[in-house]
Amino acid sequence: MISPCADRVVFGIDVTLNFLKGYILPDGEEFQLTNNTEGRRLLKEHFKRRMPSVILLQSGGKAPRLLAAMLAEERLPVVMVSPGEVKAFLKQSELHSQTDLSTTEALARYALENNPQPQLLGSEQLLTLNELITRQGQLMNLRTMELNRRDRVKSFYIQISHDLLLDSIVAQLHEIEEQICNLIKSSPISKIRDKQLLASAPEGDSRARTLSN
Description:
Layout: E1 10-15, E2 19-25, E3 29-34, H1 37-50, E4 54-58, H2 62-73, E5 78-81, H3 83-92, H4 103-114, H5 123-152, H6 156-185, H7 195-200, H8 206-212
């Protein structure tokens, strides 16, 4: 089935700890970037250049939520869906028989066919997110400086001092990441529901219960 809105540009993004994989419709372009500071910067530039109507990420784990947070801070049209929603969409479409369909293409086709509406963060949520991401960057810079200082010292006791501070910085970074992920999880970005799937699911279908919760 070809979407009547095929002139819209949509991205399907698969996020792992090491890579950022993408698929763009309607032109069918695929790409892969390293999931690091430079790769995320390049991805952000790609979005700003193509101006997509939807950037669809599959929820699950910390990595997708951290990327969604970065995109939300930039006011980009990011939406997160569950793997179950994508699987249900594929089962109802002619795409279910395509065994070579990548996750990114499935996400892009879901976005093109279902047209999920991105929900921007409210001003208070955006301010909190901005402060969390700013502090995260500060701590990462501090960690790098401490690692460099530790490498230069010879005294065992001074090395221990650096290690203690590094442990504290890492603990704070983990806590901030958790707060960022929880903010995204509870935000409108992660609360998109597909009315088509809900309407077509039989009464009592566990999928319907999942989508409506």
